[in-house]
Amino acid sequence: MKKKIRIVVNICLAVMVFGAWLDMLFFAEGTLAEVGVRSLKYFTIQSNLLVGIAAVIWLAHCKKGVSKAVESFKYVAAAAVALTFITVMTFLGPMYGYPEMLVGANLWLHLIVPVAAIAEIIFLSDAEYTRRDNNLAILPLAIYGTFYLANNVINGIGEWPDTNDWYLFLTWGYPIGFVIFALLFLVTWLMAFGMRKARRRR
């Protein structure tokens, strides 16, 4: 029964992610929403697409048996989208207003998909996640952060709305920006750690 439920959950995750992204491509609504492929510049989109891709891969393997590598990929994707959820709830929501952050496609990408992905890991997965998996959870952010900061250093921050610092992490200068990213790494690691411990206790 649990496997059947998980199959349904992963189908829903794939549909929600790619459906919301298609909506973003053509009908972007709310703050920090952008029409077209430029939406890919946001970690929100990248982390959600990671969840969608992981769901599709899991579904492709579920009949023959899902490997540990696939389960680890889902865990890393869930941790990435958990960061999106925490960032919106604690930083972007208060800054721009929750109605703007939870409208249109962003309702799915900022809230519904992250909560569903986290819940799946905790309540439906039987995989044994390790400290190595926990450390791998920061990899998507490490890649994104490297390109985000490098883009601002090389091309300049610019001025709103044509800024390369679309999350405004560098508003108070590069030192504060690096501190913010360090905190994001910590939050991602802690979210992954929390999911791992909660799954074991379950």
Question: How would you portray this structure in words?
Answer:
This protein is an all-alpha fold and 202 residues long. It has one domain. The chain contains eight helices and two strands. The chain has a two-stranded antiparallel sheet with strand order 1-2. Helix 1 packs antiparallel against helix 2. The longest helix has 29 residues. It starts with a helix and ends with a helix.
Please supply descriptive tags for the structure shown above:
202 residues; mainly alpha; two-stranded antiparallel sheet; 8 helices; globular
Task: Write a brief caption for the model.
The chain has 202 residues and is mainly α.
Order of helices and strands: HHHHHHHEEH
Share of β-strand residues: under 5%
Sum up the overall morphology in one term: globular
Please identify the structural class as seen in this structure: mainly alpha
Strands in their spatial order, largest beta sheet: 1-2
Number of domains: 1
The number of helical elements comes to: 8
Rg calculated over all Cα atoms = 17 Å
Low-confidence parts lasting 5 or more residues at pLDDT below 50?
A: none
Sheet of most strands = 2 strands, antiparallel
The residue-averaged pLDDT reads 93
Q: Helical residue percent?
A: over 70%
From the N-terminal CA to the C-terminal CA, the straight-line distance is 17 Å
Strand elements, count: 2
Question: Could you outline the blueprint of secondary structure elements for this entry?
Answer:
Blueprint: H1 2-27, H2 43-61, H3 68-96, H4 98-101, H5 105-123, H6 131-136, H7 139-155, E1 158-159, E2 162-163, H8 174-201
Antiparallel strand pairs: 1-2
